UniProtKB/TrEMBL annotation:
InterPro entries: RmlC-like_jellyroll, RmlC_Cupin_sf, Uncharacterised_HutD/Ves. Transmembrane segments: none annotated. This is HutD family protein. It comes from Dyella choica. CDD domains: cupin_HutD_N. It comes from the Bacteria. PANTHER family: PROTEIN VES. Signal peptide: none annotated. Pfam families: HutD.
């Protein structure tokens, strides 16, 4: 079965040890922090700890729960991650500090190693059938319910289409975060 329940994914320390994350999927299977092509996780942010650095990695982040935080990147840019489910892209090697807007937050993360993959994080919120093409590697049910070939997803569930194309169905008031990835030939 390729539905992953967030509650079944153990919380592990961030690469820098200053937060916690739950890995939903990694490619290739079993890859570590230094050799993944792509990785999807849900992080718990409960302090103003800096983000871990990932050289050569493009990162996408979207707020799932909480009031969010303001990210300050070492190039002087800042970004208020306070709109739920709105993806923000930034380079993994950037030094990023944060200031919480309130209490703890939970966010969704897609990481792509530049030498191995290209991709994007998109949102689906139109009810009804959605086309799953071969670029979709993971669908995360952020709100509502999603029906897949492997069963019904609840909030916090992820589905790995595993190369199958076809359709999924989103109920009314559903929002899904979709990781789209193209592996590069090496």
């Amino acid at each position: 079965m390729s539905i992953i329940r967030l509650r079944d994914c153990p919380a592990v320390p961030w690469k820098n040890g200053m937060g916690r994350t739950r890995e939903l999927a990694v490619h290739p299977a079993g890859a570590g922090m230094e050799d993944f092509a792509w990785r999807v996780s849900v992080a718990e942010v409960d302090s103003a700890a800096p983000f871990s650095s990932f050289d050569g990695v493009d990162r996408y982040i979207a707020l799932l729960q909480g009031a969010g935080f303001t990210m300050t990147l070492d190039d002087g840019r800042s970004h208020a991650l306070d709109t739920p489910f709105a993806p923000f892209a930034f380079p993994g090697e950037a030094k990023v500090t944060i200031a919480l807007n309130g209490g703890p937050t939970r966010d969704f993360n897609l990481m792509l190693r530049r030498a191995k993959a290209r991709g994007e994080l998109v949102t689906w919120e139109d009810p009804g059938r959605q086309v799953v093409d071969d670029a979709v590697v993971l669908i995360y049910c952020a709100r509502g319910h999603v029906d897949t070939a492997d069963g019904r997803m609840q909030p916090g569930d992820a589905w790995l289409p595993a190369g199958s194309t076809g359709r999924v169905t989103l109920d009314a008031e559903t929002l899904a975060l979709v990781a789209r990835v193209q592996l590069l030939g090496n």
